[in-house]
Write a structure and sequence with these properties.
With 466 residues, the chain is α/β, with parallel strands linked by helices. The strands form 4 sheets. Strands 5, 6, 7, 8, 9, 10, 11 and 12 form an 8-stranded mixed beta sheet that branches. Strands 4-13-14-3-17 form a 5-stranded parallel beta sheet, with helices on both faces. The radius of gyration is 29 Å and the shape is globular. The chain binds adenosine-5'-triphosphate and magnesium ion. The site of magnesium ion has 4 residues, from helix 3.
């Protein structure tokens, strides 16, 4: 078994990668310059300079492979951009470095244990860059000749390929003939054919044929006819995550499980085998480990067992950089009766570098609102912009951002292009923010269901939400 560990292909990553839209779709990076100084307003990011700069430094260290097995905590009040900064980091890292994002509550699922869920998340965040040598036929197509049998069921053929130095004729089977016609390969094309997988890639048209056709597409690329041998050994590099290797090799799940997203639990023995194999590849120089980033949002939702598991996992040799975010102050650690800063046990906090995020200044809020308006394709009148900014100050930034699209619906109803103060005011009356909701609950005085909490539990709850 260990000898046959397969790694899938690079195309896998595109399928399993998540598409992110919604509240943070305006974030396109961290908005830092080359010296890691935060630009005032760039890539959708505004203000929060210190935290962004810290994030930039972390990215630098990740890229240099120096920070595996460490942990960072973003701590700050709600809607101060913790999640936004993490997403900005993901976009800055580039596609080769794995970035996994989970919310802590995802760990509590019925289909697998907490530790299995965490292990999968950790292994998803460690990339293995694998170098493979493959044999490639590369040259200019001189002629394709296809013979159909009388019934048309079988096809045979010959493919003549040349480089500047030599010319060779290859026999073609049905599969190759289909592949060639699917790629629309013609005489005069320069192609590369992977001998093991049979994959054909068109590199372009030969310069020698540039005057042959006048009806050529605008995107036709001309290339030189290759030199030297037709058959070459070429090194191909692809990156997969440890988790992907796990799933592909787990006998019950297999390759298709990655598409379904339903991977179930993976046996520890299999993971051991894979770790050994990967270590072997590393020694042979065939593979390289790329520690990526695991982002755990709302980390205070993890419980004490998860925290102690994380503690240990961080010391493992194959460990990613773990970034956490919490908006809690002193609060109860789940699964215990103890209170601790940010809801994290002190022994974990001890290993963590803490970056704090602060509430935004009015000017920052104004700019964030403006960016969101552009993103949602809404235009506010200048007065409405000022009103919304001050609303964000008295309620929260998130509430103000949510009002943008509500107010637009109201403005559309009166067939107006611009959203005005009156639309905002109406949206404000339709939708309550947290403060007004609490006020309203007080006024209702117990007419809602299940309001009373027993004395003992109330104390615990109060700590939880402090
Ligand atoms: N510096 C910023 N630049 C641009 N947009 C921002 C910035 N900070 C926050 N936002 C936007 O404001 C909204 C709230 O921010 P975010 O969700 O990141 O807060 P948070 O700190 O994660 O809050 P919570 O603790 O409640 O999870 C999001 O839509 C986010 O994209
Ligand atoms: Mg958040």
């Amino acid at each position: 078994m260990a000898a046959q560990i397969s790694t899938g292909t690079s195309e896998l990553r595109d399928i399993t990668k998540m598409e992110r839209i919604g509240a943070h779709s305006h974030i396109r990076g961290l908005g830092l310059d080359d010296r890691l100084e935060p630009r005032a307003n760039s890539q959708g990011m505004v203000g929060q300079a210190k935290a962004r700069k810290a994030a930039g430094m972390v990215i630098k260290m990740v890229q240099q492979g120096r920070i595996a097995g460490r942990a960072i905590l973003f701590a700050g009040p709600p809607s101060t951009g913790k999640t936004a900064i993490a997403l900005g980091m993901a976009q800055t890292l580039g596609s080769d470095v794995p970035f996994t994002m989970i919310a802590a509550s995802e760990v509590f699922s019925l289909s697998m244990s907490k530790t299995e869920a965490l292990t999968q998340a950790i292994r998803r965040s460690i990339g293995v860059r694998i170098k493979e040598e493959s044999e490639i036929i590369e040259g200019e197509v001189v002629e394709i000749q296809i013979d159909r049998s009388l019934t048309g069921a079988t096809k045979t053929g010959k493919l003549t390929i040349k480089t500047t130095d030599m010319e060779t004729i290859y026999d073609l089977g049905t599969k190759m003939i289909d592949a060639l016609s699917k790629e629309k390969v013609l005489a005069g094309d320069v192609v590369a054919i992977d001998k093991t997988s049979g994959k054909i890639s068109k590199l372009g048209r030969s310069f020698a044929r540039s005057r042959d056709y006048d009806a050529m597409g605008a995107d036709t690329r001309f290339v030189q006819c290759p030199e030297g041998e037709i058959q070459k050994r070429k090194e191909v590099v692809h990156t997969v995550s440890l988790h992907e290797i796990d799933v592909i090799n787990s006998r019950t799940q297999g390759f298709l499980a990655l598409f379904a997203g339903d991977t179930g639990e993976i046996k520890p023995e299999l993971r051991d085998q894979i770790n050994t194999k990967v270590a072997e590849w590393r020694e042979e120089g065939k593979a390289e480990i790329i520690p990526g980033v695991l982002f755990i949002d709302e980390v205070h939702m993890l419980d004490i067992e998860c925290f102690s598991f994380l503690n240990r996992a961080l010391e493992n040799e194959l460990s990613p950089l773990v970034i956490m975010a919490s908006n809690r102050g002193m609060s109860r650690i789940r699964g215990t009766k103890f209170r601790s800063p940010h809801g994290l046990p002190v022994d974990l906090l001890d290993r963590v570098l803490i970056v704090s995020t602060k509430p935004y200044a009015e000017e920052d809020i104004r700019q964030i609102i403006q960016i969101r308006c552009e993103e949602e394709d809404v235009t506010l009148t200048p007065e409405a912009q000022a009103v919304l900014t001050s609303m964000a100050g008295s309620t929260t930034l998130r509430y103000a951002l949510n009002l943008i699209s509500c107010a637009q619906v109201i403005a559309r109803k009166r067939k107006a292009e611009l959203v005005d103060v009156e639309d905002l005011r109406r949206a404000y009356t339709y939708f309550m923010d947290e403060k007004r909701s609490v006020q309203w609950l007080r006024e209702q005085q117990g007419t809602l269901v299940f309001e009373e909490i027993e004395q003992g539990a109330a104390a615990g709850e109060a700590m939880d939400s402090s």
